[in-house]
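Researcher: Here's a chain I'd like modeled. Treat it as a single chain, no partners, no ligands.
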Amino acid sequence: MDEHRIGGTTRTLGGKAQEIAGKAAGDTSLQLRGKANQAVGNVEDMYGQAKDAAADVTQSVQQGAKVADDLFRRTIEERPYTTAVAALAVGWVIGRMGRA
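Model: Modeled as a single isolated chain. Structure tokens:
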């Protein structure tokens, strides 16, 4: 869990407590500060969630790249001639596309 999520949740709870205390004391400014702290806490929590989601996506992409690297490496090592012919064919197709 990200520190922004923890801080956001804490700030939201503190803002809720401020709002309740303001209502009990009849202090409108304390209620408004409590609501503002809740809003800031919610935004900070959402930022932490987005950051966690981005880290998960990054980890998934890295894992996929590792699997692809292993696949290509194994194919090149086990079938070098097939790989060379395939590379030559791809180069030829790209060359033909450039002339057309």
